[in-house]
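Justification of resources, computational component.

The compute hours requested in this renewal are based largely on the per-chain cost of generating structure records like the one below. Each record pairs the submitted sequence with a full structure-token output. That output is archived, and it is also reused by downstream analysis tasks.
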Amino acid sequence: MRRREFITLLGGAAAAWPIATRAQQSGKVARIGFLGLTSTSGFASRIEGFRQGLRDLGYVEGTNAVIEYRWADGNYARLPELAAELVRSNVDVIVTHATPGSLAAKRATTTIPIVMALVGDAVASGLVASLARPGGNITGQSFFNPELRAKRIELLKEVMPNLTRVAVLLNPDNPAAMGPELQAMEITARYLKMELQPFPVRGPNEFESAFEKMEQAHAEAVETSDEPIFTGYIGAIAALATRRRLLSIGPKEVAQAGGLMGYGVDVLATYRHAAVFVDKILKGAKPADLPIEQATKFELVINLKTAKTLGLTVPYPLLARADEVIE
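The structure output for this chain reads:
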């Protein structure tokens, strides 16, 4: 079972118009830029979700819409250059995701509208002034990532009460991960009398060595962030964790890929919904007037097959709260 709830603050007057008419009434071809942090293959399902959202609103690629992609392939140092390329190509709107991509887009232009498909705490990251009144040229969807990741630490303790050492995969190039997110997890870990062990990783070529260091540090579990360079290789991370007999938790895809638990937002739904912001902007709405939508419900996925492999018994109260149980 899947559960999702968003605070929807967008106006609905335009929803009454015929879909095809709304998208095509001007006869203009919408030029949409997409600034991606990883690669096409790593983000295929999310991109397809966004494209489906556009199709639902009457946009047909090659007919009345064109999407120009720029991918950093995990090298965040390239983001400013790629954002500048999209600005020079004079797209009508730029869609991006995560804190590094959103910051790069914001720094590249103050005039072209920017839609964040999904980002951590947009206010704490300095992306917007407030959720209700974002100001400037940026809007989209956000969630409280520090609180989300701290909750994952709690869930690990719940599934294994004698847990004492938790490894954390972090990208040192992401200021949100190294700042408010890590701080929130550390506070929770101290309260639960656990030691948090950060392991900075910049790409998939560093995964193996990171997990070797976790084993040497006697880590018992690992938390994986929603960082794009991790979510694009979530299957490899889940396999490494299980091979080294580490409890694992991260976004929902962790459990679905063979890890122990996943806790997070319905990412595919948020990417579909990003198209609504794009549609509003193409119809003349200003980003500053489109409040940030904040995720308020999260989904818990538990992989019982992996729990059995680890010799772990998941407490029934935790199973009862799960939105999805993989057996």
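Confidence is low (pLDDT under 50) at residues 1-25. Residues 175-191 form the longest helix (17 residues).
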